[in-house]
């Protein structure tokens, strides 16, 4: 949510400028010559003699008027220009996929890219996301999309697109008859301008992502009219658009909810943080009961749903293929959980249920476990749920089947971890999240025994952050045990405003690295080490190309009280 707010703030400050102003201002903001070598556009006089021709005219220069360059030669020259451009951006050339996300593209880069599309007739995927400097100049690209009519995936996330960009994209969409995935997320100015684009979408569209676009009730109404004419639409994500439901008089969300009943191919519906209220659930449920194909339903972070889940529960039994239901951070009350428990037996395909960050959920674990299809459950996160001793014991019944086990921010876990670890089945759990659980040295010693027996040999993510009460012997035992050959990410960070030396167990960690070949990220914020130890650790991480998140001072981290308040929410 903080990310959504931050993005809206950045996007909201943009003003409409003329194309000339956009290009000139972005040339001034261009990275220095040392960062981006002028390989393509600013060739030296010496390199001009051997440069790849810029176009067919230069290719034919010096030939007789009647002579034409061979088609094959022109094609090779064009591909060479593509390779040079991508090399400048630090990317490898691929004739079917063009990924330029996070490349600091400017309007001039976009012009150059557009001129190269004619040499990519086999292009199927284009991603220019997270390039905020191209906002206001998308026409330079869209006017050449007819050269890549075979594109199936187009991503333009967080590019500061304005209304003119959206309109230009809409005009170009008919030239992409095979487009299947369109992602315009994190562009706040899309809201209010979406209607100029929706009518141009082709029936081939399968996924539409509009996260944090400041969509209005009018946009919701337009979306409602669209879903009925997109027979292949299977993924619709309009998360982080609270205005969809705030403008009550416009009735936009009601129209969208009613129209969803016609989206017969819909399998994924995400409405996270859309400001949903109980009355919205009733309108939504009436359509969902007509869509047995829906497999993933995300209603999380809608805090106004408190006390209103009964409006949806009567419709859930009709969703025969529902596999994942996300209700985290919805401020569910005991009454909400009770109606959910009543309908869960009818959801026979359910494999993931998320009621985390709902304080009352901690007291309902025993009832939840008693009605869930335990042997097929893969995710049941219970972080920040105020687990009790009884509910923690009940959770151990489902632990053997879970791929992801998350009981973070539950202090009852400390001193009782063996109960959960002994329930694990070998090579089943992939994620183990135990952040801020009050773990003890004995808890980590028992986890080390579990690792040694090979019970977590498939573990990829291990989060043990904010467990400051663990002693050096516990950390040393964990890394000396082995059995973490599949581990990709590990977080051992201490709480903010704290610090402790890692000298006693650092040799065990360094000695364990050869037995963790899959490790790509290690976080150990606020652990301190001597200069020689720090140098050795950083060298080992760099040698293995492992990302090390390590700030011994922790000066850029929030205070402990801020972390605790967020966990409570």
TrEMBL record:
Entry coiled-coil feature ranges: none
Comp. bias intervals (Basic and acidic residues): 1-14
Region annotation (Disordered) ranges: 1-71, 546-569
Composition skew (Polar residues), residue ranges: 557-569
Superkingdom of origin organism: Eukaryota
A Pfam family that the UniProt record links to this protein: LRR_6
Name by which UniProt lists this protein: Leucine rich repeat containing 31
């Amino acid at each position: 949510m903080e990310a959504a707010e931050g993005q809206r703030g950045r996007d909201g400050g943009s003003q409409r400028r003329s194309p000339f102003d956009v290009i000139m201002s972005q040339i001034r903001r261009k990275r220095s010559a040392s960062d981006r070598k002028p390989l393509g556009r600013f060739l030296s006089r010496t390199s001009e003699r051997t440069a790849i021709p810029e176009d067919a005219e230069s290719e034919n220069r010096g030939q007789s008027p009647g002579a034409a360059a061979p088609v094959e030669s022109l094609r090779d020259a064009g591909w060479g220009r593509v390779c040079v451009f991508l090399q400048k951006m630090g990317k490898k050339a691929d004739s079917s996929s063009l990924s330029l996300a996070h490349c600091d593209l400017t309007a001039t880069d976009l012009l150059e890219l557009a001129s190269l599309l004619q040499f990519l007739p086999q292009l199927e995927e284009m991603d220019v996301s997270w390039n905020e400097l191209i906002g206001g100049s998308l026409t330079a690209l869209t006017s050449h999309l007819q050269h890549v009519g075979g594109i199936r995936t187009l991503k333009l996330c967080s590019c500061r697109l304005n209304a003119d960009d959206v309109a230009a994209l809409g005009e170009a969409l008919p030239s992409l008859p095979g487009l299947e995935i369109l992602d315009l997320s994190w562009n706040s100015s899309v809201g209010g301008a979406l209607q100029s684009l929706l009518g141009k979408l082709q029936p081939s569209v399968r996924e539409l992502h509009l996260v944090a676009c400041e969509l209005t009730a009018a946009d919701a109404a337009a979306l409602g009219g669209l879903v009925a004419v997109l027979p292949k639409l299977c993924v619709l994500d309009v998360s982080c658009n609270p205005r969809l439901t705030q403008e009550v008089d416009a009735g936009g969300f009601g129209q969208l909810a009613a129209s969803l009943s016609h989206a017969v191919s819909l399998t994924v519906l995400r409405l996270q943080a859309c400001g949903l209220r109980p009355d919205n659930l009733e309108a939504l449920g009436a359509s969902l009961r007509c869509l047995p194909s829906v497999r993933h339903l995300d209603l999380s972070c809608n805090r106004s749903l408190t006390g209103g889940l009964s409006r949806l529960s009567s419709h859930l039994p009709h969703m025969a293929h529902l596999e994942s239901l996300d209700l985290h951070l919805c401020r569910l009350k005991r009454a909400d959980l009770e109606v959910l428990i009543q309908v869960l037996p009818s959801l026979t395909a359910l494999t993931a249920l998320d009621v985390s960050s709902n304080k009352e959920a901690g007291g309902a674990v025993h009832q939840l476990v008693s009605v869930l299809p335990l042997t097929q459950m893969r995710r049941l996160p219970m972080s920040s749920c105020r687990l009790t001793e009884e509910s923690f014991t009940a959770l151990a019944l489902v632990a053997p089947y879970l791929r992801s086990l998350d009981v973070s921010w539950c202090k009852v876990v400390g001193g009782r971890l063996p109960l959960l670890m002994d329930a694990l089945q070998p090579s089943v759990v992939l994620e183990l999240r135990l952040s801020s659980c009050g773990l003890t040295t004995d808890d980590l010693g028992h986890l080390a025994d579990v690792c040694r027996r090979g019970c977590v040999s498939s573990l990829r993510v291990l989060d043990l952050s904010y467990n400051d009460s663990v002693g050096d012997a516990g950390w040393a035992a964990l890394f000396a045990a082995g059995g973490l050959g599949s581990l990709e990410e590990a977080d051992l960070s201490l709480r903010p405003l704290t610090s402790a030396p890692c000298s006693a167990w650092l040799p065990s960690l360094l000695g364990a690295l050869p037995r963790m070949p899959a490790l790509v990220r290690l976080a150990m914020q606020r652990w301190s080490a001597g200069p020689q130890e720090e140098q050795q650790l950083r060298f080992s991480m760099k040698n293995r190309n492992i990302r090390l998140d390590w700030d011994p001072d922790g000066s850029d981290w929030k205070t402990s009280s801020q972390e605790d308040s967020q966990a409570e929410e």
